[in-house]
Amino acid sequence: MKNKTKIAIIGIGRWGKNLAREFGKNADIKAFCHTEKNENIDWLNKNFPKIPSKNYDSILKDEDIEAVIIATPINTHHKLAKQALLAGKHVFVEKPISETVKQAEELTRLASKKQLILFVGHIFSYHPILAKVKSITKREKIKKAIFSWHKLGTFKEDLVLNLGSHDIAIALELFKKPTNIKITKKIKSVTRCDIINLDLKFKGNTTCSIYLNRISNQKNKTATFIADKNVYLWENNSLFKLNKTKNEFSLIFESKTTPLEIEVKEFINCIQNKKTPLTNGEFGTEVVKVLEKIKHQ
């Protein structure tokens, strides 16, 4: 049995805490690095009382630590990931990999040069429902996909970089690179953009509409796939198929495993078996290329 991979968690905001819980089951957490807010200290004392908090430089100098998990604001991803790779650490960095294509390409080249794992946390790429949809596309052509996400906040990050990167990654997984990208709606409220609608076109006349709304009182994320003969609905951890005779959706698949669990285990697997991640630097870069085109419209 292989020894547990020794890691450090960088950032323990809301998502960082989720990562810490899951990595705590699958790896050996040697240190945390965080802003020393009372709430962070209290949470660590309650959940990981024996694990020390250290500054980033000391973590990078610690030869016992094999990998770092970066769950910090998007504008810090490139700098922190680059420092870790230069220090010889494998890197799990939350999506998107960086703010610009240039930064993403630099990290990808550096990881390749250093022969290190660069794993981008595009969590929906590891969702069992997406795997099921991909299997459906092998026998049925999807003509149109409609992604819709309603939630409230958070307003700390750019809407498209933060939420849009999820749906862009799903679209790239299913349809590869888009041939055309167009913003059809953009509404500001709390920030410069809190509602947006995007239309993407792909080879073979496949289209994808992405609607993001972070000033909604409801919380719901769905993906509708219109194929040649059937209609499928992905909602949370369930996949439904439209029964056109009864005019109702029937459950055809339900995920019992969380994508976070799968994602974390896959990162560890990539390190231990020197395996190229599904969401490696190249994939992360392709997502940022689309995000950058949206940004420049």
TrEMBL record:
InterPro entries: Gfo/Idh/MocA-like_OxRdtase_N, Gfo/Idh/MocA_Oxidoreductases, NAD(P)-bd_dom_sf. It comes from the Bacteria. Residues 6-122 form the Gfo/Idh/MocA-like oxidoreductase N-terminal domain. Signal peptide: none annotated. Pfam families: GFO_IDH_MocA. GO terms for molecular function: nucleotide binding. This is Gfo/Idh/MocA-like oxidoreductase N-terminal domain-containing protein.
